[in-house]
Design brief:
The protein is of the alpha/beta class. It has a single domain, classed as Alpha-Beta Barrel (TIM Barrel), CATH 3.20.20.140. 42% of the residues lie in helices and 20% in strands. The longest helix is centred in the first third of the chain and has 21 residues. The structure holds zinc ion.
Length: 278
């Protein structure tokens, strides 16, 4: 158990309370991962590199047309992956929902459970949700989940695809105002090609530093140009090529380059703490 009051750290070890003052600490949250696709070794490395909290999102990596199988997958994340991460020191928060590439399902069973998880405070967001190939079913399931989020005052983590990102983002930006208030929304995987479309909106924006998506220098360039206030940082580690340490590497690079510590703290922890209300 670790509590922090100003710079005093209190830890319990072998029934003894250890109090220590820390001169400067940068805590880190990885705001978007897929814990079910990763090993305990990854969690261990993340923890040793300074990540205390991670948000894991739902995505079933195979073609699926059965709601019960999808529900089992979501329950696994909630009940099993949280324990696995905890064993390695990571406080794993959970976002569940129907990913746009998993929209070949009916959806009703998942919606019923979303209401239950939200009421029990099992999840911190509905996610990741969004659009990928712009099929009719994707639109239907995306809008339904936005409506549930608005009705229950729950955050949503919105995926934007690797391919066709700009056009799909335009569609998402058309839909959002009809369904949900901006305070509940993070639009994720924003890169330098599309940042101008969203920088003047009231949405929170996610930066994903992942091989084949965006490197840390592009993320740093965006922060340098547009400021640190609107952004969350994440690795999106999944079954695709990933770097479990991309958040600490980006934070340490910002430190090495001499960016203001207070600003770095926003992207490392504070913005996510505020958005998710941890
Ligand atoms: Zn993801």
């Amino acid at each position: 158990m670790l509590t922090q009051d100003n710079l005093l750290i209190e830890k319990q070890y072998n029934n003894k309370i250890i109090k220590s003052k820390i001169i400067e600490v940068i805590e880190m949250i990885d705001t978007h991962i897929h814990a079910d696709a990763r090993t305990g070794e990854d969690f261990n490395e993340m923890y040793l590199s300074g990540i205390d909290v991670a948000v894991t999102c739902a995505y079933y990596p195979y073609k699926i047309d059965n709601d019960t199988i999808l529900l089992n997958h979501l329950m696994r994340i909630l009940n099993y992956d949280t324990k696995r991460a905890d064993e390695h020191g990571i406080d794993l928060k959970v976002a569940l929902g129907i990913h746009p590439t998993n929209t070949n399902v009916d959806g009703k069973l998942i919606y019923e459970n979303l209401y239950k998880w939200i009421e029990n405070k099992d999840i911190v967001a509905i996610g990741e949700i969004g659009l990928e190939n712009l099929t009719e079913k994707e639109y239907e399931i995306f809008k339904k989940q936005l409506d549930i989020a608005q009705e229950t005052k729950t955050n949503v983590i919105i995926h934007t695809p690797r391919k066709n990102k700009s056009a799909v983002l335009d569609e998402i930006l058309k839909i959002l105002p009809q369904h949900i208030s901006p305070e509940y929304v993070v639009i994720d995987h924003i890169n330098s090609n599309v940042v101008e479309k969203v920088i003047d909106t009231d949405y929170t924006l996610g930066l994903t530093v992942q091989p084949q998506k965006m490197d840390k220098l592009e993320a740093i360039d965006i922060l340098d140009n547009y400021g640190f206030d609107k952004f969350l940082l994440n690795s999106d580690i999944s079954n695709k090529p990933s770097d479990p340490l991309s958040v600490p590497k980006t934070i340490r690079e910002l430190t090495r380059l001499g960016f203001n510590k207070k600003e770095i703290n926003k992207i490392a922890f504070k913005n996510a703490e505020k958005f998710f209300n941890f």
